[in-house]
Design goal:
Elements lengths: L1 E2 L9 H7 L40 H14 L3 E5 L2 H9 L7 E5 L4 H11 L5 E5 L4 H7 L4 E7 L11 H11 L2 E5 L4 H4 L9 E5 L13 E5 L2 H14 L5 H11 L2 H20 L6 E3 L9 H7 L6 E5 L3 H8 L6 E2 L9 E3 L11 H6 L6 E5 L5 H15 L3
Helix pairs in contact: 1-2, 2-9, 3-4, 12-14
Length: about 400
Amino acid sequence: MTRVKQEDLDTGFATRAVHAGQQPDELTGAIMTPVYQTSTYVQPKLGEHKGFEYARTRNPTRDALEQNLAALEGATHGFAFASGLAATDAVLKLLSAGDHVICGENVYGGTHRIMTHIFDRLGLEFTFVDTRDLDRVAAAVRPATKMIFIETPTNPMMHLTNLAAAGDLARDRGLILVVDNTFATPCFQQPIALGAQVVVHSTTKYINGHSDMVGGAVLTVRDDLAEQLGFIQNSAGAVPGPLDCWLALRGVKTLPVRMSQHDKSGRAIAAWLVDHPTVEHVYYPGLPSHDQHELACRQMSGFGGMISMELGSLERARLVVESTRIFALAESLGGVESLIGHPASMTHASVPQELRDAMHLTDGLVRLSVGIEDVDDLMRDLDQALQRAAGA
């Protein structure tokens, strides 16, 4: 397992983003962590090694990424995985058949799918609730409950969960609180400081920020969970390759400046969309009209570039997502380039219709991942697409 060094926790966020977990290469002085493209390591003597035996277990490039991300989240241990879903898979493997999990009803579609289509048949039980209302979470607790798993903000409805209150509930009931922090990133939200014990990321998204790798991460402050996660990571082997780790590390170095621009443009576009005649509703926690805006201001230092908008019909949504010129119609989010998507048929297609209906995830909902392009160009692009859909 990779334990974060204390000196990496004693500096500011931007400094940690650039330096945590990384030292100049001892052999050459290279300032960038090398890509250790190797599967195995020569051992000088039988039973002796230099800390590395086989690359599934440890790799120096992966070690640097794990320590870096743990430092950013204020965690003590970090684990990198081959995808965000591999990270979620590892977290659920902390549990045993018969254990019960309370999960937010509006989570990433892949999270819902792995719970209901894989772990459910392996003996875990799941209850999906609206975690905006922690009374519902408390009411769902059973003797077999072991974990609360939430996203905040959620994908794609931008619902928030009060992390401090959820942390208190989990601590009082002896439960593991897991928070998917992919949308906010540690730049804008620190779940561990608010009571979470485990944080999950799809590093594919904002952490990397350049849409050129796939990865995930699990960060924790609990030594016992870290011991188990290290065993799971090595035993299951869903680890990222060294080049993907290097790409994520490179991306992290600019995370604070990128998130600042995502946030600035996201706020501007969300406010502009509110007054657009073709848009029926805008979901963005940075808007004063968002029903949890006050909570967002308390537990987030920024609101980011993820926006969802309700257009009222599938036909309007189709016209918009197929008409943008800068916003690219694609899965994923969090890159420097702007993306547009249709959650009902893309990221959340595997979520049952009745659950989509319950959370108002309609066929007319469109999700935006606002990139770092000139915001005026992005608004013009959206406007021409929305104008095409106006009469539909």
